[in-house]
Design goal:
Oligomer: single chain
Order of helices and strands: EHHEHEEEEEHEHEHEEE
Helix content: 10-25%
Largest sheet: 6 strands, mixed
Shape: globular
Strand order of the largest sheet: 3-4-2-1-12-11
Radius of gyration: 17 Å
Distance between the termini: 31 Å
Length: 273
């Protein structure tokens, strides 16, 4: 596979192309490579990637408002976006869900905080120094008419306690949902970690990368930091689904260097949809 062709591209219903990406917020101090880290440079790469991949559902983490707006423009007017900022005023870094409205209707959406008081803006209580959020949306599939609930999140990068508490809280929210579910995110923890086990224990969710019928890439790692693909690197970014999903393909879209994280893709069909 070369960058002249998509890793997945557009898929035919009833399949859904899912994608998750930590876009890396625009930073005043560039790291680790000033040239690679400039948003003005990465923006062009992202536009090329998105126009080739055309995901039906895209979850983005760590986006500042102008970055989220730019991604919406790249995808085009047929996509809807939902997701607020993590700050008290709803501004700042956010988790955003982009949905192809030719396939799905956004019926409801909300942003809530990974804390003991999830409806209180900017709240934090699990040991994380900055607020952490979840964007949740209920979609209706235009093909089947069935509902689909999607969660997009970004766990804390410093506190292991916060990551585990957040995973348990998110798992309870998923269990409360009836019907097909997708969880997209940067979990700042590897796939053999306690947060991963908390989300996949008991059969509530499965990891698309683990259960895929076909792997689209040899690369496992998603945290490349603008470097070369990492076949055995840490897989911090996951696509999780409920067990009724059939994951025909999944993979890491490595080598683009459009963020310090690499995009993750999965092609999913639900038995219930």
């Amino acid at each position: 596979m070369t960058h002249d062709e998509p890793l997945v591209g557009a898929v035919k219903p009833p399949a859904v192309h899912l994608m998750t990406l930590n876009v890396r917020r625009r930073m005043p101090r560039l790291w680790p490579s000033p040239a690679a880290d400039r948003w003005s440079h990465r923006r062009q790469l992202m536009q090329t990637l998105l126009r080739r991949e055309r995901p039906g559902i895209l979850g983005v983490q760590e986006a500042l408002p102008d970055q989220a707006d730019a991604i919406g423009e790249m995808l085009g007017s047929s996509y809807a976006s939902v997701g607020g900022g993590r700050g008290r005023d709803g501004r700042g870094e956010r988790c955003v869900l982009f949905v192809d409205t030719a396939r799905f209707v956004v019926q409801d959406s909300s942003t809530w905080w990974l804390s003991a008081t999830p409806t209180r803006a900017a709240s934090r209580s699990f040991g994380n120094r900055i607020p952490r959020i979840v964007t949740q949306a209920t979609l209706a599939d235009r093909v089947s008419g069935s509902p689909l609930t999607v969660f997009v999140t970004h766990f804390d990068h410093l506190s292991a306690r916060s990551r585990l508490r957040s995973a348990r809280m998110l798992s309870r929210s998923v269990e409360a949902v009836e019907g097909p579910v997708v969880v997209l995110g940067d979990f700042n923890a590897d796939a053999d970690s306690a947060p991963h086990r908390a989300l996949t224990a008991g059969g509530v969710l499965v990891d698309a990368f683990d259960v895929a019928e076909r792997r689209l890439s040899e690369t496992r790692g998603t945290f490349s930091r603008y470097g070369a693909p990492q076949p055995h690197g840490r897989r911090l970014d996951w696509i999780l689904t409920d067990p009724s999903a059939v994951v025909s393909a999944a993979g890491v879209n490595a080598g683009w260097a459009l963020s310090d994280h690499d995009p993750v893709h999965a092609v999913v069909t639900w038995r219930a949809m």
